[in-house]
Design brief:
heterodimer, A: 211 residues, mainly alpha, Rna Polymerase Sigma Factor, Chain: A, Arc Repressor Mutant, subunit A, 2 domains, two-stranded antiparallel ribbon, 11 helices, 2 strands, disordered N terminus, B: mainly alpha, 8 helices
Chain lengths: 211, 192
């Protein structure tokens, strides 16, 4: 991603790129082996093993949900729902696939569905599950850190994108996924991803100009 | 004039998806095309913004795993099929209850006193319910009907079976209401 784009007298190298941490933590072969052990144990009904997976992947999954939905409360709910779905679909998990990719795929699809439904309906507070109401009452240090960011330029820009475009953009920038990986995660073709990222950048550039 | 071929290439360039030859070709085009260069610059601005934002990875509040465990336990205890089974049982129980009522009424009407439940008896039983509903205008009449029905039911094993089924259906209803009313209580437990 740290592309040095030199054109004329201008250098567009972004120095922060080289040092930034990606949302998807660097997974060593040992960690990957450990995750496969957890996944296999969880598939056999070991709930403690699944909790280890939740613990290991709570941050990348939550981050994806937050970038997609733009709200800490919704992100918490979506991340929890992602792991619930993963738990119920454990039997379908194929060990050949990276566990992180599988979880992010579930999270992406869930967030896309949620955003689509959100366009047509408003959720009443009475319909929110109890844990969500509780989460609202508790002090949220992370929320304080993110409050200023919620309405920042990037979030406003991401909000202008269609759900599919937003997912591709988030996976590309926050997870540094290749076209192949994004296509696998979103279960579509590489050409579709290429097109979505191109269109997303075009739309974002237009949105920036109108701001 | 903007060339879509090259604007798409600009996007791929940002993603390191171009080979050196393609990069060289794109750079040569940008040098001579002001429209594409403008597109490049606006996309570059967006690219920089996103890279800056991507440096921050959001994390959930502490206790995420514990909250997930609570949620999983709640979900497992409230599987949707429980509700459907309960509603199905309730429906069957309710139908059986009213059937028992109708049958007993019919048997009372013809004073059969036996266990033969032919179509004619059933028909008369159903009819008495509707006729009674129309004609019973006083509380005393309703009580009288209930009393006579009760006396008859005691002597009928089949009716007892139907009553027990109805009681079970009622119990299931109460259980459903109990489960539904527990939801806010659960939130209180979680705050402790």
């Amino acid at each position: 991603m740290n592309n040095t784009l030199t054109f004329g007298q201008q250098s567009f190298m972004n120095s922060s790129v080289a040092t930034k941490q990606t949302a998807e933590q660097h997974v060593t072969p040992e960690m990957q082996a450990q995750e496969q052990v957890w996944a296999m144990a969880a598939q056999k009904g070991d709930s403690a093993a699944f909790m280890n997976i939740v613990d290991a992947y709570q941050r990348p999954v939550y981050n994806l949900c937050y970038r997609m939905l733009g709200d800490t409360t919704e992100a918490e709910d979506a991340a929890q729902e992602t792991f619930l779905r993963a738990y119920t679909k454990l039997k379908t998990y194929n060990a050949d696939r990276k566990l992180s990719s599988w979880l992010l795929s579930i999270a992406s699809h869930y967030c896309i569905d949620r955003l689509r439904k959100k366009r047509y309906q408003m959720v009443s507070w009475d319909e929110l599950p109890p844990w969500q109401a509780v989460a609202d009452k508790k002090p949220q240090p992370e929320e304080a850190a993110l409050t200023h960011e919620r309405h920042d330029t990037v979030h406003q820009l991401l909000d202008t994108l269609p759900e599919d475009y937003r997912a591709a953009t988030v996976l590309r920038y926050w997870y540094e996924m290749s076209y192949d990986e994004i296509a696998e995660t979103l279960e579509t073709s590489v050409s579709a991803i290429k097109s979505r990222l191109f269109r997303a950048r075009q739309m974002l550039a237009e949105a920036v100009e109108t701001q | 004039m903007m060339n879509d071929k090259y604007t798409e290439k600009i996007s791929e360039w940002f993603d390191n998806e171009l080979n050196p030859d393609e990069v060289a070709e794109l750079q040569a085009h940008l040098a001579g095309c002001s429209t594409c260069r403008q597109t490049y610059e606006s996309m570059q601005h967006v690219h920089t913004l996103l890279l800056g934002a991507a440096a921050h990875v959001a994390a959930p509040d502490q206790g995420f795993v514990q909250r997930f465990e609570s949620r999983l336990a709640w979900r497992q205890a409230h599987k949707p099929w429980h509700i459907w089974v309960a509603l199905g049982a309730l429906l069957v129980g309710t139908l059986l209850f009213w059937s028992a009522w109708a049958i007993s009424g019919g048997l009372l009407l013809v004073n059969a006193g036996g266990s033969a439940l032919d179509a004619n008896v059933l028909y008369q039983g159903v009819m008495i319910i509707f006729e009674s509903a129309a004609s019973l205008r006083t509380f005393v009449n309703i009580c009288l009907l209930l009393w006579k029905t009760g006396l008859f039911l005691i002597s009928q094993p089949l009716i007892w079976l139907l009553i027990i089924t109805s009681v079970c259906a009622t119990w299931l209803w109460l259980r459903i209401l109990q489960l539904l009313s527990r939801r806010p209580a659960k939130s209180i437990e979680l705050t402790l």
